Inverse folding.
């Protein structure tokens, strides 16, 4: 095990993990697909019966176009509009839900728009040093409006569920979020747990997978694993093209939260799915048992090296894939992850594209810490050798840590005997309350304020509650008035000033 100790030392240095990603090999056998199941060439898209709900305007109020999705309208203002272009909802030309401003402030040009419940404006801000902490336990979808007049991916809100009683935490390090994968559920183990093998039994044949509404937005459903050591993450698993229902092997890596590269191997067909005409969705043809093990192997020359070995068993065939990278270490944390990735080329991802990946049922999940591996683990292991139940539905045990739901407005989870995950971009437009509830309440209260004739009764019943609720908003929420609805902000300040001296 001489090679292992050298690799382990490298892996323990955070900055060193970036320097060893050059050499990658994908080895291991692949059982030929059976004659009965081949990749489908039939492409499906979801029938779009939605009405236009959002209007993109030029800065002179000229209508640029109507859209069914908020995010398509935002993209239009950035790509086809100019500074000052904005978005409203149909039937409401007063409440702007996005504006292509010329910078947030003189010293902060990039702008960030936050949407709750999928499409309700909840905040607007400049970049903040502690931005990641403000997104924990929120369901925000973030649209970054760069000063270069371009949308870009940025960190969304995330929350922690399934927290173990002894080891749980609500803190999610920024490098444990992956901006390029728009929604996911990731089961996190204790760092340096000692677990080097995980087995997940997934009843994929119970899942439902829908393509997007149009042929321009591409989404891929996935189940798999990632191993994490310092800032280097290796991704492995199977991905489904939601337009064809075909499942393929994938691998990839993340070197920081905003740079994730996923490669789908279209030559490694895993299985297909059957189109359900009534439900307008795909049903995967098989359940899968997936195993990821970080292990030392010996080549034909007798040299030892470390691999992540993924075994995929569909009940009809078994496929084994090895991923070799000098940045891997045996003490990297293994995490199960599932999600629905938007892979379109648009600068603003469409979170209302209609695609979904529902009822992902994890029947069992087991982790293994091996006695012979722990002997060379470097005395870092938290757990003793043994077998551990990793289901969130199970009773707390020392291996349980937490599960991170990234973009909770898209992701839901149920833990009742089995762990069930749902991912859905099937979000209906909300033309009634276009702002998040707390912001909408303040908006309505300020709109109801008089502009003259203030009395003690008006102060107590209207002005004071509006001012109190405004002050209770986050700084991001207040900016929707100070920056976006500045005339209403002035109205509130004028009302407060007019009531000075009234008892």
């Amino acid at each position: 095990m001489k090679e292992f100790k050298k690799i382990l030392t490298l892996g323990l240095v955070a900055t060193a993990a970036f320097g060893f990603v050059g050499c990658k090999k994908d080895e291991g056998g692949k059982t030929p697909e059976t004659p009965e199941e081949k990749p489908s060439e039939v492409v499906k898209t979801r029938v779009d019966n939605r009405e236009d709900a959002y209007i993109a305007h030029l800065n002179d109020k000229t209508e640029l176009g109507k859209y069914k999705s908020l995010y398509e309208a935002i993209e239009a203002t950035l790509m086809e509009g100019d500074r000052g272009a904005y978005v409203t909802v149909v039937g409401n030309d007063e409440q702007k839900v996005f504006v292509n401003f010329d910078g947030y402030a003189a010293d902060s040009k990039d702008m960030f728009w936050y949407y709750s419940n999928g499409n309700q404006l909840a905040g607007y801000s400049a970049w903040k040093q502690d931005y990641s902490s403000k997104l924990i336990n929120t369901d925000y979808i973030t649209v970054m409006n760069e000063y270069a007049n371009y949308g870009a991916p940025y960190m969304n809100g995330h929350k922690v569920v399934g927290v173990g009683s002894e080891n749980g935490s609500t803190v999610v390090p920024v490098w444990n979020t992956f901006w390029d994968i728009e929604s996911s559920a990731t089961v996190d183990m204790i760092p340096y747990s000692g677990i080097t093998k995980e087995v997940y039994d997934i009843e994929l044949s119970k899942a439902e997978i829908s393509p997007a509404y149009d042929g321009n937005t591409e989404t891929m459903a996935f189940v798999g694993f990632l191993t994490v050591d310092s800032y280097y993450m290796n991704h492995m698993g199977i991905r489904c093209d939601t337009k064809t229902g075909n499942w393929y092997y994938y691998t990839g890596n993340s070197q920081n939260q905003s740079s994730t590269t996923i490669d789908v191997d279209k030559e490694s067909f895993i299985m297909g799915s059957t189109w359900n005409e009534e439900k307008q969705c795909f049903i995967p043809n098989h359940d899968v048992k997936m195993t990821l093990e970080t292990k030392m192997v010996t080549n034909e020359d007798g040299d030892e090296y470390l691999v992540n070995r993924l075994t995929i068993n569909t009940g009809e065939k078994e496929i084994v894939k090895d991923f070799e990278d000098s940045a891997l270490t045996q003490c990297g944390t293994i995490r199960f992850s599932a999600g629905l990735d938007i892979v379109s080329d648009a600068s603003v991802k469409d979170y209302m594209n209609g695609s979904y990946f529902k009822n992902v049922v994890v029947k069992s999940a087991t982790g293994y810490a091996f006695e012979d591996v722990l002997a060379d683990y470097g005395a870092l292991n938290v757990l003793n050798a043994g077998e551990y139940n990793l289901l969130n539905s199970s009773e707390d045990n020392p291996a349980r840590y937490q599960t991170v739901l990234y973009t909770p407005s898209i992701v839901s989870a149920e833990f009742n005997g089995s762990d069930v995950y749902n991912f859905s971009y099937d979000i209906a437009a909300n033309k009634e309350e276009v702002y998040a509830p707390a912001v909408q309440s303040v908006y309505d209260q300020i709109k109801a304020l008089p502009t003259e004739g203030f009395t003690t009764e008006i102060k107590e019943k209207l002005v004071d509650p509006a001012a109190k609720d405004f002050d209770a908003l986050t700084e991001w929420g207040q900016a929707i008035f100070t920056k976006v609805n500045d005339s209403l902000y002035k109205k509130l300040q004028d009302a407060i000033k007019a009531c000075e001296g009234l008892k």
Notes: The longest strand covers residues 356-369. The radius of gyration is 25 Å.
